[in-house]
Amino acid sequence: MKAKVRWMDDMKFSGECDGKSIEIGGENLTPMQLILMSVAGCTSYDVVDILKKFREPVEGFEIEIEGERREEYPRYFTKIKLNYKFKGKLNRDKVIRAIELSQGKYCSALAQMKIGGVKVEWEYEIKE
What we know:
Layout: E1 3-9, E2 12-17, E3 20-25, H1 31-53, E4 60-69, E5 77-87, H2 92-106, H3 108-115, E6 119-127
């Protein structure tokens, strides 16, 4: 994987990776917001994929993520909390297993946070 970030003007940057691009800063997402969304996106991808393999009838899914940061610089994350929200007639044990597999084995972005000492909490809800 190879990426580059180029300064555009003021505090606005353009990032490119593997032929895809995103604007960073300015009126767009900040790097720390992107990190938080990357963690949520990574675990979301895993959980939905695992539930599909379990043949669970997922009708809807979203995840909310909150991050707490240090007051001093560098202001890295110290804690994140994920709330997995599902829609459908899902087996609770399979939902928990999918989340645990993502959290403990598959989600590289989340693993990177844990290696850095970030405390990770999670909860889930299922609405039929």
